[in-house]
Amino acid sequence: MIRVAVDAMGGDFAPQEQVLGAMEAVKKCDDIEIILFGRPEEINKYLKPHDRIKIVETRDVIPMGEHDPVRAIRTMKDSSMVKAMTAVAQGEADAFCSSGPTQALVVGAHLIVRRMDGFKRPALAPFIPSFNGGNTIILDSGANLEVKPEQLLQQAYFAHVYAKEVMGIKEPKIGLLNIGTEEGKGRVFENECYKLLSESDLNFVGNVEPKEILNPPCNILISDGFTMNICVKTLEGTAKTMGAMLKRSLMSSFFSKIGALFAKKSLDKFKKDMNPDDASAAMVFGTKYPCVKAHGSSNRIGFSYGILLAASVAREGVIEKVSKALKDSMPQGETNE
Amino acid sequence: MIRVAVDAMGGDFAPQEQVLGAMEAVKKCDDIEIILFGRPEEINKYLKPHDRIKIVETRDVIPMGEHDPVRAIRTMKDSSMVKAMTAVAQGEADAFCSSGPTQALVVGAHLIVRRMDGFKRPALAPFIPSFNGGNTIILDSGANLEVKPEQLLQQAYFAHVYAKEVMGIKEPKIGLLNIGTEEGKGRVFENECYKLLSESDLNFVGNVEPKEILNPPCNILISDGFTMNICVKTLEGTAKTMGAMLKRSLMSSFFSKIGALFAKKSLDKFKKDMNPDDASAAMVFGTKYPCVKAHGSSNRIGFSYGILLAASVAREGVIEKVSKALKDSMPQGETNE
Fold first, then answer.
1. Quick one: how far is CA B266 from the chain centroid?
2. Quick one: which of A31, A148, B104, B200 has the fewest CB in 10 Å?
């Protein structure tokens, strides 16, 4: 059995969607057990008793808009997030999942779950949907605004193993986010990363321009946290504004309203393609045990994917395999501090 | 009369669209004269003789995919771009416009047209269309991948005067592109820029997230060239891919095809809103004389706007006004090198 510690109180629609998501997850998957951390009286409003779901009582909740995540993690010892992470760190569970505030989760992953040996800068790696189906892993999505090229190389190794073992991609392709495709483009940082990635035994496909973000020639797209955050937030904003523009155009005349009615099913599918539930979970790369961040506004389906993702990473032994790959592939000086 | 030196040979559809664009521009505006630089035998295929358009013969063309822009500008002395810029630098014309390769244009602006006094890092500033009409000036769009906060402040002053004098905005609002809206977000660079902008007499509205790129709470959005390039290219790619997804969705069933037919006019308008011709010209901020970069794939209408923009900047005396504003507003040590 794989035991997943779930923060039932974190998220815009917690605990309802988190509890319903947990029930969805045990239904989908037979080899997982879930421990819900939170206020029992609130959890029990939604929970149907299940022999593979149990509750551990915690009273505090780290709020979604928490401005001082370090302080929150250090002082809110009885919060659902801290208690669930502590359970993982102490071996009472195998993996962690939460929809709670991202920065607190990343800080908690560092301070409570802790980094795996030799991994310098854990990264946050969500998926984004691709035009031709499938998902692209993108990192670092905000955990470290600025990183060193060697740290980015470690993250690339983690992504490689993760794509292979969890996503089942045989030869994961890795691309570097950059303002042009030719070698030599970008800042000093991109040029150093390019060199390290080219010299590694990873399947590096070169620079990838952000205009290919929804249809990249790779499975894994990497950059520093600041740049990737700019890219992802531009993508989100453009998609949202374009949706609004489309709606405004379609509602502007009688004929186009009729047209929109005829096309409704396709337009709804289009909207769904842009917002897939299973794309909303991000994983922290580089911790000792699997930590998954589900989207803050996850519904039950989205959250159940987060739980299943955390369980998969534990089941496939991703972290042990990354550890081995780093030892085998990187000069010793680079893996140690 | 305002004399605009036009590179007739630069651009994906040159010289045809450049020549037709020049004819369009003299039709739209009575106080401009155009000098077309290029191969007369090719220009004359499209040009109807006009008393305010003349040709200066040049034989070379800097190719669109030029990989070594510095070398090209230095050695291709008889190219249409170099000759047109030289005419401006020598006072034979008042402004310059080209659809030629961006990096060569930026290098030429530095080396031939030269920087205005005290301006350290010229920037490239295009417009992007906003959801609620109007355009946003964005900079730096790739001229300088990395800049110092004081250089960014100078660019902000230029943008302020430009928005006021050329775009007619009374109190232009300036926003800093960042990964969050609160003060303190971002890298050290963003924090230093935030401080300088707050202390200036510019109308600084604070950090702006890239998810607001199509609907920002400001008229001018600034960042370093690398970050802005990532943002703009993500925007372009997302818009393009979403358009393709929408088309695929609409063509997927009989009913939605009928719907699309009914809604065609609105969908076409939507497409046009995303690709306005007049948004495709970028200005170089910080040169001694106005230099405008029209989009490489400009059609005649888009290119005519580029010419008219260059003429407006000269007509309104933007560069003199920026020069005065910098002297008045910034500590002397910051404007000189």
1. 28
2. A31
